[in-house]
Amino acid sequence: QLNMAKKREAFLKEFKEGPLQFKPTYKFDLDSEVYDTSEKKRKPAWTDRILWKVKNLSEVASKEGEFPEEENPISVTLNNYVSHMSYGISDHKPVTGTFKLEMKPLVSDPLVMLNPEGEWSAEHDVLIHYSAAPELPSSAWDWIGLFQVVTFKHVKDYVTYAWVEDDEISSNGNSKQVYMSASEIPKTGEFLLCYYSNNLQSIVGISEPFQV
């Protein structure tokens, strides 16, 4: 039925499925690995399935500031696709799949080069110098975050941040300075700076680690 539906329904044609190398997962007598022994004696069927689809980003890259890619920056590989016969609380057997997800960077080179200026301390306001590539689709909502190296796993893990426009103190073409308030600077530790682009919804520049 699924294979026939994939041929008939356009929205299903792009979905992929791994090989069915396990026994039909329906219908079982409860708490057993015995197929239906009731009066209906239903035929075993591969009812429980996992299908996946990767959105074609080139079809939706029409928003201002987005960089269309010639090939999809996301790839998905199925590692395994199995049923679990030991579970017996239902007349179905559960099915699981594990996948490998690879994401290519939006750009091959950093769009922003940035570094802390002078000695950083919680005793005084500090300065950040950065230069942006001409092709960066800058926004008033771009910001530079301060991240602790040992805890940096996500863009929301910042200790503090500065808006690139509101906190700017000097500008010379693509070379600019931004200040960060001393009240937000930790007393000690190893940190780095990241430039977040609102238009690209991504970090587009990372400094070398430095000590506070």
UniProtKB/TrEMBL annotation:
One GO CC annotation: ruffle
Domain (SKICH): residue spans on this chain: 112-212
One GO-annotated biological process of the protein: negative regulation of glycogen biosynthetic process
Gene3D superfamilies, per the entry: 2.60.40.2840, Endonuclease/exonuclease/phosphatase
Sequence intervals crossing the membrane: none
Pfam families given in the database record: Exo_endo_phos2 (PF22669), SKICH (PF17751)
Domain Inositol polyphosphate-related phosphatase residues, every copy: 1-97
GO molecular function, one term: phosphatidylinositol-4,5-bisphosphate 5-phosphatase activity
Leader peptide range in chain numbering: none
Family indicated by similarity: Belongs to the inositol 1,4,5-trisphosphate 5-phosphatase type II family.
Name of the protein described by the UniProt record: INP5K phosphatase
Classification of source organism: Eukaryota, Metazoa, Chordata, Craniata, Vertebrata
Gene responsible for this protein: Inpp5k
